[in-house]
Amino acid sequence: MVYDPVRRAVVLHGGGMEAASAETWTYDGATWARLTDAGPRRRFPQLMFDSAAGGVLLYGGFDREPSNELWRLRGSAWERLFPAAP
After folding, report:
1. How far apart are CA 41 and CA 72, in angstroms?
2. What is the pLDDT of residues 28-50, one digit of tens each?
3. In sequence order, what are the residues at sequence separation of 6 or more whose Cβ sits closer than 8 angstroms to the Cβ of residue 34?
């Protein structure tokens, strides 16, 4: 989870102990809203806000194996930054 000052909302992505998830949600202090369910399928990813680029980044997490992928949230879609998409 990370606070996104551009959206003025908390962004939540992924799943927990039992299952990996591709869902991304926002919370504005009053309402949860599903942003997308098409993204990296992860348990325990790390989210951070990149103030230079003005957006949310996602790193790592687990599916069956640990991941070293880096993703950026653009609007309501995830874009893989590293490794470059084939």
Report:
1. 14
2. 999 999 999 998 998 899 999 99
3. 23, 24, 25
